[in-house]
Amino acid sequence: MGDKLVILAGGISSRMKKSVASGNLDPWLQQEADQKPKAMIGVGAGKMPFLDYLLYNARSAGYTDIVIVIGEQDESIRSYYGNKNFGNEFHGLSISYAVQKIPEGRVKPLGTADALLQGLNAVPEWRGSCFTVTNSDNLYSVKALAALRQFTSSGGMIDYDRDAMGMEFDRVKQFAVIKKNAAGYLETIIEKPSAEEIALCCNEHGRVGVSMNLFRFYYDRILPTLQNVPLNAVRFEKELPDAVRLMVTSYPQEVMTLEFAEAVPDLTSKDDISWVRDVIKQSYPAALWK
Fold it and tell me: What is the distance of C-alpha 118 from the center of its chain?
């Protein structure tokens, strides 16, 4: 079992900032969405940031050693969780940072694979161990996080039932789908799948699994893959799903899929904020850390 977790929060939240809320959104939340990383939008009681709830679930799942990959232009995460580069104490968690810089000539960071690479470079003492990696704008359940922490294989991922995500289908059908073999090992992740590709990923009951970038990796195996993954031909970024596909090509039994059927609150656009606030209000105590 591992107690190590990397949270990818180095993006510039461009989709959130460019989006326009279709309904009424509190002006202060509009301002937060326009100015802060998605993870720091105050969706909770007392304007508690979204990231607090992910960290709360992580602590409940048994994680204690947290690396947050932050953007070089953002100080909101560091000012909230502690200014030290390593070992900030936060409600029983030890929080450290890795900075994902924007390369010269670009306006955005180099992608999620690069973000994870920066995170692992910051903690070389993790070599020889396994860890979990998450997005910072998805609220994964304690159960899903604990399943990966307690997993006995070196590599794993949560395989979410596409029909149980708690989102409108037009949105979910755009998610990357999972193709696995009969034993449950990941074969590939298909981004922006066609109807034909989705059909290839269905099981005998019509279930389609999707990826929400919730993985368990062995440090020594994923690191060289992250170092060598090419730029995505469409987005011109180094994407984590591309790195995973590259790794399982060489190691076909490296990533075991774990099937889950549950909603995953997601902060992508301003229209997600009200939904996420409702989920948090219904599911978490107002005094979260008490």
Answer: 15
